[in-house]
Amino acid sequence: MATILKPPKPKKCKCCSEKFTPRNTLQTACSPKCAIQLAKQLTQRKQQREEKEQRAAWNKRKAATKPLSHWMNMTQRAFNDYIRARDGEICISCGSTTAVSYHAGHYRTTAAASQLRFNEDNVHSQCSACNTHQSGNISPYRINLITKIGLQRVLALESNNEPHRYTREELDGIRARYRALLREILRQREAA
Ligand SMILES: [Zn+2]
Ligand SMILES: [Zn+2]
What we know:
Layout: E1 11-12, E2 19-20, H1 32-65, H2 68-87, E3 102-106, E4 123-127, H3 128-133, H4 138-149, H5 151-158, H6 168-191
Antiparallel strand pairs: 1-2, 3-4
Helix pairs in contact: 2-6, 4-5
The structure holds zinc ion (2 copies).
C-alpha cells in the first residue's frame, strides 16, 4: 500500500522571511545561502548568551569575595550623598553656606556609634573645615541640631548605645533605599 504524502505547506524562511515550500519539515531556510546565514546567527546568539552567563557568574563570584567593609563603604557613600542633597550647602556646625565643599558629618561618629551611621537624625551637611579640621565642631553642632530636630531626638541619639551588626543584605537594602531617595530629590529639583 503506497503512502500518499501530503504536499508540504509553504512556510516563512527564518532568515529572510520569504515564503518558500520546504522539502521536509526540518527545513527552516529557503536556500543554502539563508541556511548558512541562519546557522551563523544561531552560533553567534549562543556565544553571546554564554558570554553573558559567564560575565554574570563572574560578577557574582567577585561580589561574594568582597569583605563586608566594602559594602559598608559603598552604603555609607550612598547614604552620605543623600544627606548632602537633602540639606544642601549649609554647615550644621558653623552655619556657613560658602565653603568650598560640604560633607555628610556624623553627630556621633561612626567609630563611636556605628549603629547610627545610617540614621538620618545623626548625619547632616557640614563644611569640610568643621568636618575634618575641628573634628566635627561638636558643641555648635549640638546646639543647631536641637534647633533643627528638637531636644527629644537629640537625646534619643545620645542615649542610643545598642551595638548593631550589619549584614550584607541589610546594607544592600539601605543602599538601594538611599539611592532611590537621592534620585527622587534630584528628579524633583529638575522638575521645579
Ligand atoms: Zn531565505
Ligand atoms: Zn562649618
